[in-house]
Specification:
Helix content: 25-40%
CATH architecture of the largest domain: 3-Layer(aba) Sandwich
Low-confidence stretches: none
Shape: globular
Structural class: alpha/beta
Number of domains: 2
CATH topology of the largest domain: Aspartate Aminotransferase, domain 2
Radius of gyration: 22 Å
Largest sheet: 7 strands, mixed
Order of helices and strands: EHHEHEHEEHEHEEEEHHEEHEEHEH
Length: about 375
C-alpha cells in the first residue's frame, strides 16, 4: 500500500480521534435541539453549546456575548456585509480591501458595490506584500486579511487598525482570521477590531461551523430572522429580539459541530506549529533551480511555482504519489496577479505530519522537477 501524506492543512484540517469520538457520542447519546426544550437532554445540549461558546470566547480574548456561531468564514463575511448594510442603510459606504484578501472576504463587498450600495478602494501593500501602514486610505469599512493563504505571513493587525483609527475613529474594521487562527494567537481586544471571523474546519473542527466576533453587537442590526433570535412578535408586526448573541443566531445551529469545536481548540493548543517541518521543505526546495518559492522563509505555509509546469499538472502528479496538497489560485486571485502568476502550489502541515512525511514529499518533488 502506498504511503499517504496529507500536507493540505490550510485547506482543511484533519480531524483528531478525540473529536470524532466526542461528536459520535453526542449524536448517539446526547443529541437534541438547543434553546427549544425543557427536558433534561435538551438542557444538556444548551449547556454544551454554552460551554463551547465560553471556550471560543477565551480562545480569542473576549466574552461569550460577543461570540456568534456561523456556518464558516464565508458565511460570516457575507453576513457581515448585510449586517453593516442594514445598520447603515442610508449611507453610501466606502470599503477598503486589499490584494491579500481571500475571495470570501472581498467578493461580497464587490457584489454590494455593483448593486450601488458601496464603493471599494484598495489598501496598498508594501514591497514585501504586507499591509502598508503609512498609506491607509480614507474609508468607512476596512477588510483586513490577518494572514494571506498564499504567503502565510501574519499581519500586524493591531498596528494597522491603530493607523486606521487615526484617520477615522469610527471606521468599522473586519478581520479575516481564517488562516491566521491556526498559527497565531488571536487577541481581539489588542486588535481593537469590530468584527472577526474564522472557520472551525481550519483548526480541526468539523465543516459547517464558524465563529463571528462582534465587538459591540448591540450597535448592529441583525441580518437573519427566524426561531431563536426573536423574543416576541407584536401585533403591529414589530419584533422584540433576544439579546446578543442570540439575536444573530436565527434557526437551528450546527450543534454537533459546535460541540466538537471545543475539542478542536483544545487540540490546537497542544500543537507546536510545525515550523521545523515547513522550514525543512523550504530549505530543500530552495536548492532546486526549477522552483520559485513565493512565500518568505519562516512563513507558516509554503507556496511555490514550478518552471514550465502548470500547477494542475504538478498537483495531479503528486496526487498519483498519494501526496495531498493544494494547487490553483487558492481562492485568492488578487495576490497571484500581484506576484505575476496564475496560480501556485501550496504545502501546509498539521499536527499529524512527521519529518518522515515531509521527506517523502521533498523526495517526490525532487524526482519530478529536480
Amino acid at each position: 500500500m502506498k504511503k499517504f501524506v496529507y500536507v493540505d492543512a490550510s485547506a482543511s484540517w484533519l480531524k483528531s480521534q478525540s473529536l470524532i469520538e466526542i461528536e459520535s457520542e453526542f449524536l448517539a447519546n446526547s443529541y437534541a435541539n438547543a434553546g427549544r426544550g425543557i427536558c433534561e437532554r435538551a438542557d444538556k445540549v444548551d449547556r454544551l453549546v454554552a460551554e463551547s461558546r465560553r471556550v471560543c470566547a477565551d480562545f480569542i480574548g473576549t466574552n461569550e456575548k460577543n461570540i456568534v456561531f456561523t456556518f464558516g468564514t464565508t458565511d460570516a463575511f457575507n453576513r457581515i456585509v448585510n449586517i453593516v448594510k442594514n445598520t447603515f442603510r442610508d449611507k453610501n459606504l466606502v470599503v477598503a480591501v486589499s490584494d491579500l484578501d481571500h475571495h470570501s472576504a472581498r467578493l461580497p463587498w464587490m457584489a454590494l458595490e455593483k448593486a450601488g450600495g458601496c464603493k471599494t478602494v484598495l489598501i496598498p501593500l508594501d514591497k514585501n506584500f504586507n499591509l502598508d501602514f503609512d498609506n491607509v486610505p480614507v474609508a468607512d469599512v476596512f477588510v483586513i486579511t490577518a494572514m494571506s493563504n498564499v504567503l502565510g505571513v501574519p499581519q500586524d493587525v493591531a498596528r494597522f487598525i491603530k493607523s486606521v483609527r487615526l484617520k477615522n475613529p469610527n471606521a468599522i474594521t473586519v478581520v479575516d482570521a481564517a488562516q491566521y487562527v491556526a498559527h497565531e494567537k488571536i487577541d481581539v481586544k489588542k486588535f481593537d477590531c469590530d468584527f472577526l471571523a474564522f472557520s472551525g474546519h481550519k483548526i480541526g473542527a468539523d465543516t459547517g461551523v464558524g465563529v463571528m466576533y462582534i465587538k459591540n453587537p448591540d450597535l448592529f442590526m441583525c441580518d437573519k430572522f427566524g426561531g431563536g433570535m426573536v423574543n416576541h412578535v407584536l401585533d403591529d408586526g414589530n419584533l422584540i429580539l433576544n439579546k446578543e448573541p442570540e439575536k444573530f443566531e436565527a434557526g437551528t445551529l450546527p450543534l454537533t459541530q459546535i460541540v466538537g469545536l471545543r475539542q478542536a481548540i483544545d487540540d490546537l493548543k497542544k500543537w507546536d506549529g510545525g515550523h521545523d517541518l515547513t522550514n525543512y521543505i523550504y530549505e530543500e526546495l530552495s536548492k532546486l533551480g526549477s522552483i520559485k518559492i513565493l512565500s518568505p522563509k519562516d512563513a507558516s505555509i509554503l507556496s511555490f511555482v514550478v518552471q514550465d509546469m502548470h500547477v494542475l499538472d504538478f498537483g495531479a502528479l503528486m496526487g498519483a504519489k498519494n501526496i495531498c496538497l493544494r494547487v490553483g489560485n487558492m481562492c485568492a486571485s488578487w495576490i497571484h496577479k500581484k506576484l505575476g502568476v496564475d496560480g501556485s502550489v501550496r504545502i501546509s502541515v498539521g499536527p499529524w505530519n512527521t519529518m518522515e512525511d515531509v521527506r517523502y514529499v521533498v523526495e517526490n518533488i525532487k524526482s519530478l522537477v529536480g
